[in-house]
Amino acid sequence: MFRALFLGSLAASTLAASSLAGCAPRYAGKGAMEPEDLWSPLPRQHATVMGMDIAYVDSGGSGPPLVFIHGLSSSLAFWEYQIPAFALTHRVLALDLPGYGSSERPDAPCTPPWYATVVSAWLDTVGVDRATIVGHSMGGQIALQLAITAPERVDRLVLSAPAGLESFQAGAARFIKDFWTERRALATTEEQVRANFTTQVFNRRDAGVERMIEERVRLGLSPRFAGTSVAVSRSIAGMLDHPVRDRLGQIKAPTLVVFGTADRMIPNPVFNGGTTRSVARTAEERIPGARVVLIPGAGHTVHHDAPEAFNAALQEFLR
After folding, report:
1. Closest alpha carbon to 13 in 265, 317, 281
2. The CATH number of the domain where 75 resides is what?
3. Regarding beta strands 291-295 and 52-58, do their DSSP bridges make them parallel or antiparallel, or are they unpaired?
């Protein structure tokens, strides 16, 4: 699912999938699941934003607004350990980006600048002028874009294993975009989905991860998943075509960056190599006043792998 594999953990993923080839599919026989049936930590609501149906959750309350933006090929449910916890003290909001989750699958660019515009318009719709913005992976690059182009909307910025801090040579970018065609995600088998989730995306395998594997497999059987496959391809191209690395010095909001030390996706193992610590140092050096937290043993979905440590770092930052 999450295809922030987008940057080449492709080779490792293929090897992992072949090692699981003897595992019988568990979920394909259950039939298709539709986007509106996906699990959510709070009841999903819907609003029309820029002519599109956007699904979101809103805890309500009078606390300061805290907004969560998910990553590539995922949904707001990836924040299952944050939404209920912070709803005790904040007005917590999270959306399914267009193309993903229970939101509409439009014929749209799906680039970080476009998504940042969508998020800003959605904030207008739900009555939020300014908020702490928390983004994961691709959602982190979207949050960075929002902080750069609409700084008046971002009170504080929190980045969980964000995309956008690496740079890619032209040849690598071209290879990635050529590989991730608009039909590529449709060809992913259940064994490959499981391998991606358990060897790349998550280091902590719990009931939530198993639920997400089932949802991804069964959602892939729905005709509407074709729109998600298109969104994945365009999102990947958009992240490569609209880099923010050289604009990080423009960020004015206080910023927290959290990585897991065992992230298998950032830095890209095929095209860049190196260590996650080196990518985190890029944030520390280029974003004015940025605070960086490295959580031992956590992977790319650091807020899910180590929710207690991640939430503690976020709580401390908010104080």
Report:
1. 265
2. 3.40.50.1820
3. unpaired
Q: Rounded to 10 degrees, what is the CA torsion of 140, 146, 147, 151?
A: -160
DSSP 205-220: --HHHHHHHHHHHHHT
Query: Per residue in 1-26, is it b (16+ CB within 10 Å) or e — as a string?
Result: bbbbbbbbbbebbeebbeeeeeeeee
Q: State residue 258 phi and psi, 5-degree precision.
A: -120, 125
For position 181, what pLDDT does the model report? 95
- Cβ pair 13, 5 in contact under 8 A: yes
pLDDT at residue 8 tops 50 = no
Domain count, the chain: 1
Return d(Cα 145, Cα 164) in angstroms, integer: 9
Q: Give alpha helix (H) positions in the chain.
A: 10-19, 83-86, 112-125, 138-149, 170-179, 190-196, 207-219, 225-241, 276-286, 302-305, 307-318
Alpha-carbon distance of 154 to 157, in angstroms, equals 7
Q: Which of 80-84, 221-225, 275-279 has the lowest mean pLDDT?
A: 275-279
Domain coverage including residue 291: 4-318
* CB distance 65 to 90 below 8 Å: yes
Q: Is the model's pTM score more than 0.70?
A: yes
DSSP reduced 3-state for 47 = strand
Burial 30-58 (b: 16+ CB within 10 A, else e): eeebebeebebbbebeebebeebebbbbb
Secondary structure of 116-157 as H, E, C letters: HHHHHHHHHHCCCCCEEEEEECHHHHHHHHHHHHCHHHEEEE
CA distance 69 to 139: 5
The residue type found at 285 is: E
261 pLDDT band, cuts 50/70/90, is very high
